[in-house]
# Entry
Amino acid sequence: MSSTPLSPECTRLPPLTGPEGPRLVFSDLDGSLLDHCRYDWAPAGPWLERLDALGVPVIPVTCKTRSELLPLRHVLGLTQTPFVAENGAVVGLPAAWCHARRERSTGPDGLVIKTFGVDIGLIRQRLAVWRARLGVRFTTMSEMPLAAVIELTGLDEQAACLARLREGSEPLIWEDAPERLTALREGLEGDGLRLVQGGRFWHVTGGADKGHAVAWLVTRFAALRGRRPLTLGLGDGPNDVTLLEAVDQPVVIRGCHGHRVAPDQPALYRTTAAGPAGWVEGLAHWWGDGVGRRVTEGAIMSDFHQNSLITDDNAGEV
Ligand SMILES: [Mg+2]
# Structure
């Protein structure tokens, strides 16, 4: 929880509304919390500050790699929250989110890493097999020169290098007729792999997706705290659909890519603004007006070490 005084921009926000109890925010990054082109998040700063002060974890759920996320967590002030990388293939847990019996020691960066996907070597091998078998054209990120990754993503050289350190998913640029994607998707499905569309790339993953990782983290939170949290999720791409279907309060942020994003949700808010301005609009829609109240229990990370709440009955693989 933040101990520094709140900024004037933060204190001018309307009070947080909604039911009492713990809350979690699950957020896509590129095109959502981060501007699609400039990777800027300044408009979201006051809301991030407020959620931190209230003890509401903001959990990045992204196609980025773990290597990309680690420095970004520090810049965004999200070092005390978990993260989901590579579209659900990799989950990072800070110590407060670890189970005393299942994750006995953290790594050198203070995190426990869970992997839900399949090995990146297998994904690349199967992609090569299907490309030869089907005669389709695409280029994977691992095959691209670094300059091409920089040009496609707008990342600087260092960040582009980190983007190529894949653990459980492979992005690719499709260079063939759109209708031929179906054959590749079906072939990969036979291997237990998935083809999902992001804002820039198609992504090949194992069985994991963003929604699976979000549900896993909600279950973990409930097991540790003994209460299910109210969850709000934000995303702009087709690869965010499962995330948006896994939360209580979904926000589809207006995209810059033209792809259809239609989660099966009875209550859905679509923003008019894109990127971090849309992120703020979505937060304000669900939690931004009415009678304010502080989150006084449940989501305060400083008292999150209640592993004793886990019983043998709820100690499933979370
Ligand atoms: Mg996105």
